[in-house]
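> @MW can you paste both from yesterday?
MW: sure, first one:
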Amino acid sequence: MEIRETLVNRFYDYVAIPSQSCANGGTKVPSTEGQWDMARAVQKDLERLGLEDIHLSEYGVLTARLPAHLPAGFTKKVPAVGFCTHLDTVDVNLSPVVHPHMVKNYDGKDLVLNADQQIVMTTKDHPELLRYQGDDLIVTDGTSVLGSDNKAAVTNVVTALETLTSDPSLYHGDIYVAFVPDEEVGLFGSKHIDFSRFPVDFAYTIDCCELGEVVYETFNAGSGKVTIHGVSAHPMSAKGVLVNPTLLAVDFINLFDRKETPECTEGKEGYIWCQAVQSNQSTAVVTLNIRDHDKTRYEARKALIRENVERLKKMEPRARVELELVDIYGNIADAVTDENHKAIDYIYDAMKELGITPKTIAMRGGTDGSYISTQKIMTPNYFTGGMNFHSRFEFLPVSSFVKSYEMTMKLLELIVKNA
């Protein structure tokens, strides 16, 4: 069976396992049972391939090791490399069940994903489709995301391991893998990696979009929760007594610049996103996302939130206002040093050898590598090939999918060659 067919078949097997994570899962990791199903399926594949030190933790983190296989008499030290991919798919209020199918030799026209429900992906709304005329595209029936974020990467890594274990002519150093849950809801899985089981010199995530994309710069990310305790009263006797927490939440939100929000920013422009308000007669809770590529500006945004909380307290001293700020992940670029930059260089070297044009982006988001890099393990990111993540119009060009796998294999080859 050729690699293309192997990749597609394995990808279909993985996306058939519903494994959405849940943003309201509380402190439980994984946040959903489906992620356990996905972890156990991958675990069985690793066991079949003969990997060592396979371990599925209480947090649904699956780790394993493929011991080095080097030529006889080879004495150079080959760095231990890791690959981290996430097991969950995003929940955007679409079906957790994925029905993928392939559009062969795409003709450049609008794609009818679901005739019964009249779900059509048009080239007007999605001009990126036109770049893939003549390619085979994996799409959904329009009722779900496809899940190439990140099951294309899981497929990539498992297939690379299968190739290495079946072909003794392919040499490599120690390879460690980590498959983690709950990336989509705050990188909670990578924060539960037991790094004694992932003792690598550097690592890679495979968790961004189109062919050629490279990411080693991400947001610094934090979350905020402002809880406003008002004073409830019956309207008949409310004058001078009632302190309305809902109106105070609105007043608090209006203290921020409306132009520094996700819908008004791009590139390396950061923001504070007042993401949700939950309120009743006595309490209101405002949840915030804080993002910026620049660490100083990120800290300044957190300081602004603190200042606005204090302003709110002065506006209505009878209310009790509480603030909770949490750092979620850091910018990978802040962890780059002269010593660990080689992990990034290998990506560009591999692309050059494979004839891929790099598209380096400062990601307006984060990867598991954003957290892992804070643990002194440089972890840049390269493409899966998927497009339109987190959408019913997600699609995966098969040629790009194959190139992502070839990147993984080329990286391992170059690491040995340059030892």
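MW: second:
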Amino acid sequence: MRIVVTGRRLLLGLAVLGGAGLLLAWSGIVNIGASTGHWQITNWALHWGMRNYVRTYAWFEPEPPADLDAERLVRRAAGHFETGCAFCHGSPLMPTPVEARHMTPPPPRLTGSADKWTPRELSRIVGHGVKYTGMPAWPARGRADEVWAMVGFLRALPQMTPERYRALAFGPAVSGDPVLEACARCHGQDGGAAGGAFPVIGGQSETYLAATLRAFREGRRHGGFMQLAVERLTDEDVSRLARHYAERPGLSDSLPSGTGEAAGIARNGLPQADVPACESCHGASARRNPAIPRLAGQDAGYLAAQLRLMRQKARGGSAHAPIMQKIAERLPEDSLDPLAAFYAGTGR
């Protein structure tokens, strides 16, 4: 009998506490204004919980790539950091902005992040964000390659001088055209090779470039770097940028020379795997659709990465994407890098 009474009292006590909490929240007297900051114990509890969450879920993150600290990954993420991160976290060129200092909690400086977090922990934070802090998840789910590029950048940030940061994040100056200047941060004014950090877009089909920009802008093709870069472009901007880069030297329809297995796939496909010749769509044939990209002269790492994204169905953007996804699935894994190298002109 005593157990039953005690249980009822416990339930009644919990109900009273719950009702009191609801009444307190309804009253509006709890000050949640950012100007008051957190109590010290609240601040400690939130950060303690966050550290525990990151440590636990980092076990589910994949192993970092072997080239995590490569210069091309650092360079690839620098412009995005300046545009999408520095206004809260600051940069080697700028202390923490005044608005960020008045957030609750204030965004941390990231110059010591590589000492506090392992690569897999950083991957979890960058990829999934942190609730109640204003830290967003990565804009493009499924783009682990972009998340790892940002992790590589964060690992390089503590040793980065203001001069190096400026060169990486802003690229060459382009006067008189702010829209082109924003693109040139990463792609340069001519859209040429960038040490593997970005694709070659100089000489690409104008139709393909315009369609790609629209696909990123409208969310049909996912990429955290590009979606942020193009979200405010007008149709006129898109047409002008596509025309500018299409008129630059770079990619071509000329098939590289070679006689190896990759060259055979490019010219003849893999009939036994129902893979058509790459050149049947991407080559210089009179039947070539201008909405299909040129490949000759493209960066090998970029091409191989796109083929793997196609295999994972993590890249879309046009009506041709499902076709290419099926073809990429049928290509043997060990053929992807040689095929990309062949089109880049660095393989056989």
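> thanks! The radius of gyration is 25 Å.
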